[in-house]
Design a protein that fits this description.
Length: about 250
């Protein structure tokens, strides 16, 4: 099966990875959590349009490739909901003075624009994949969904063993989150079509790096089949419901 990075991978590099033993699959676990990273209008724009048009108004935008990813993510989220697999969303907000973003502001001369200030449309989760009451949502200030957040606490509470990372951008927040999942000893899975980037070469090379060193890059259909193979509510009684917890079962 062809890989998305094949056209940018030199033959000698391929031989090096093979000879050194890199790229072995870690495989799926039994208790996955689906992580949806920053699928907000800032990263796709308010309408599907070519990226160079979209970034005129939305400086973070990935344009049409982002909206294509949203379509695949819709299917994956639906499959997760069917099995009551916990879904965790991250978003972004920025203080008007940018203090909470710190060094993240330093690399873009457009960092002062208002599209990502708290309360703006740009920070809203795209409606096609928006959270439901049972889902977990929090705002992060840095690329990784783990950095300075309660994500690890939630994963421990759920007894999770697998983190399925989706969203944007592949080379930024997705990579940082997928690598951190590995660093905390979770099986790290990235569905290829459910992540995207404003740079295609960054998208491909970072997926290559994840597959070679950190986790598994899988086709979305394969992850959906994995979800369907699981029992209902694989993370057990601590799975969030969005309902009052008066009847919550106490784990033994």
């Amino acid at each position: 099966m062809a890989n998305v990075w094949d056209d940018v991978l030199p033959e000698e590099d391929r031989q090096v990875f093979e000879a050194a033993g890199w790229g072995k699959d870690v495989g799926f676990g039994e208790k996955p959590v689906l992580l949806v990273v920053d699928v907000i209008y800032n990263f796709v724009g308010d309408v599907p349009e070519p990226i160079l048009d979209s970034i005129k108004r939305w400086r973070y935008s990935c344009g049409e490739r982002g909206w294509e990813g949203v379509k695949h993510l819709e299917r994956l989220i639906a499959a997760a909901r069917e099995k009551q697999i916990p879904i965790v969303y991250t978003g972004m907000d920025r203080r008007p003075d940018g203090f909470d973003q710190g060094a993240w502001n330093w690399k873009s001369h457009r960092s002062g624009e208002a599209s990502d200030i708290k309360g703006s449309l740009g920070n809203e989760i795209v409606k096609e994949v928006a959270p439901e009451p049972q889902d977990i949502y929090f705002v992060k200030d840095k690329p990784s969904a783990f950095h300075g957040t309660h994500l690890l606490d939630y994963l421990i509470y759920l007894g999770a063993d697998t983190v399925i990372t989706t969203g944007t951008t592949t080379s930024g927040c997705v990579r940082a989150s997928a690598v951190d999942a590995t660093q905390y000893n979770y099986r790290s899975i990235v569905p290829e079509e459910c992540v995207w980037d404003r740079s295609m070469i960054s998208h491909k090379v970072n997926l290559l790096d994840i597959q070679m060193k950190y986790g598994d890059v899988k086709k979305t259909d394969e992850v959906i089949e994995y979800f369907r193979s699981l029992p209902d509510r694989p993370c057990g009684p601590n799975t969030p419901t969005g309902l009052p917890n008066t009847d919550q079962e106490v784990p033994k």
